[in-house]
Amino acid sequence: MANSSMLTYLPRGSFIHKLTGTTKLCFFVMVSVAAMVTFDTRLLAVLLVGTLVLFKCSRLHFRDVKWVLWLAFIFLVLNHLFIYLFSPEYGVELYGSRTVLFTLTQRYTVTSEQLFYHLNMLLKVCTVIPLALIFILCTDPSEFAASLASVGISYRIGYSVSLALRYIPDIQRDYHDINQAQQARGVDISGKDKFFDRLRGSVNILMPLILSSLSRIDTISNAMELRGFGKNPKRTWYVQRPFKKADWAALCAAVLVLLVTLAVTVHNGGRFWNPFV
Question: CA 39, CA 102: separation in Å to the nearest integer?
Answer without folding.
Answer: 25
